[in-house]
Every structure is written in structure tokens, then in C-alpha cells.
Sequence to fold (69 residues):
Amino acid sequence: MPVRLRKFIGTILIVVLVLAYAVLANTIAVATLGDAPWWGQLLYFLLTGLLWVLPAMVIIKWMAGPKQQ
Fold:
């Protein structure tokens, strides 16, 4: 697969990932954190704010293509 096509598909996937992840994380937060203390909310949003990076790294590695020797 050409590199340009990989990057295009990867860009679309990252945008979809971020949007879907934000909706899911906020939906869970609204449903469960209504009565949680401030430190619980802070911890939840800190963890969920960083967690999306893991699948994004996988997509970015795929976009880079196989390692060149």
C-alpha cells in the first residue's frame, strides 16, 4: 500500500477514534460521576484524557509502514 494512502487512512482513523472516544468517555462520565467527589472526577478525566493515546500510537505506527532495513 502506498505511503500516502496509509497516511490518509490513518488520519481518518485517528479523527474517528478521537471523536468516538470523547463521546464514549463523556457519556460514561455523565452516567457515573454525577455524585463523585472532585478528586474522583479529576482522576477519571486525567486517565481517560491520556488513554486515547495508546490506540492512536498503534495507528501512527501502522501509518509509518514497515521498518526499513
Observations:
- The mean pLDDT is 92.
- The chain is about 80% helix and 0% strand.
- The helical segments are 3-32, 38-51, 53-64.
